[in-house]
């Protein structure tokens, strides 16, 4: 079941600066699709790059090919894609203005690399840029169970100012489907990036039911 964007969930003002979306090879390709869809539906330009593992996972998890998804996003006119090896892309430089970045889903390999400044591909370098420029960085990690290594790296990222936003269902909202959960996490990402003030009514906890 899709969720229609309501006026209160739209960004505070139309933006010319893009949000960078890095897609990595953790499970949860649908989360990347939902985040990009919500940003574009909210008139926020999107610049995306995806690791080769991300494409592999996408093939396992999605009905639509990654290439078709790129064409669908591109049709909005507000979408740019760069190959993950293209370290000459503008998002590799702090001089290119952006509203921040989300890594969704974020593999433990990418979490480790970013936590330690290993900027050896475009996802990792764009995140490195966000950290050094003190721009919002939202990390949607996906792994279970989490080892002490994973937890240490995520702690490091949190201490560097990143928002760690695990893709967890809001059980208290009685979400019934994976799509409910995916849309909820995607909306939380927009909030964490500072693009919206409020969650739509069906995504808010408003006290006891009785
Ligand atoms: C189908 C599939 C699912 C995977 N799921 C996860 C996952 O949930 N979390 C994770 O950290 N790695 C997962 N991996 C392993 C990563 O893809 C692998 O560590 C890869 O090197 C990550 O590279 P990247 O961070 O550059 O995308 C998965 C791999 C495959 C093929």
Give a quick rundown of the structure:
The chain is of the alpha/beta class.
Question: Can you offer a commentary on this structure?
Answer:
The chain is α/β, with parallel strands linked by helices and 210 residues long. It has a single domain, classed as 3-Layer(aba) Sandwich (Rossmann fold). The protein has 7 helices and 6 strands. Helix 1 crosses helix 7 and helix 4 crosses helix 6 (148-159). The longest helix is centred in the last third of the chain and has 15 residues, at 178-192. It is globular and about 55 Å long. Bound molecules: flavin mononucleotide. Residues 24-27, 51, 53-54, 56-57, 60, 107-110, 142-143 line the site of flavin mononucleotide.
Backbone shape: globular
Number of helices: 7
Largest sheet: 6 strands, parallel
Oligomer: single chain
CATH superfamily name?
Flavin prenyltransferase-like
Topology, element by element:
Layout: E1 19-23, H1 29-41, E2 46-50, H2 52-61, H3 66-74, E3 79-83, E4 100-106, H4 108-115, H5 122-132, E5 137-141, H6 148-159, E6 163-164, H7 178-192
Parallel strand pairs: 1-2, 1-4, 2-3, 4-5, 5-6
Helix pairs in contact: 1-7, 4-6
Flavin mononucleotide binds near residues 27 and 107.
Give descriptors for this structure.
210 residues, disordered N terminus, alpha/beta, Rossmann fold, 6 strands, single chain, six-stranded parallel β-sheet, binds flavin mononucleotide
């Amino acid at each position: 079941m899709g969720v229609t964007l309501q006026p209160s969930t739209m960004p505070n003002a139309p933006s010319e600066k893009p949000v960078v979306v890095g897609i990595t090879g953790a499970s949860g390709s649908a989360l990347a699709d939902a985040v990009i869809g919500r940003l574009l539906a909210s008139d926020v330009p999107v610049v995306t790059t995806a690791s080769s593992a991300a494409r592999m996972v996408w093939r396992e998890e999605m009905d639509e090919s990654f290439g078709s998804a790129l064409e669908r996003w591109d049709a909005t006119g507000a979408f740019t894609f760069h190959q993950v090896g293209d370290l000459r892309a503008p998002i590799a430089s702090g001089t290119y203005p952006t509203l921040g970045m989300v890594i969704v889903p974020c593999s433990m390999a990418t979490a480790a690399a970013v936590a330690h400044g290993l900027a050896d591909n475009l996802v990792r370098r764009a995140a490195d840029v966000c950290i050094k420029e003190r721009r919002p960085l939202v990390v949607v990690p996906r792994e279970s169970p989490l080892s002490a290594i994973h937890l240490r790296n995520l702690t490091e990222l949190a201490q560097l100012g990143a928002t760690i936003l695990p893709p967890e269902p809001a059980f208290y909202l009685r979400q019934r489907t994976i799509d409910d959960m995916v849309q909820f996490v995607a909306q939380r990402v927009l909030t964490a990036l500072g693009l919206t003030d409020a969650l739509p009514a069906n995504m808010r906890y408003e006290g006891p039911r009785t």
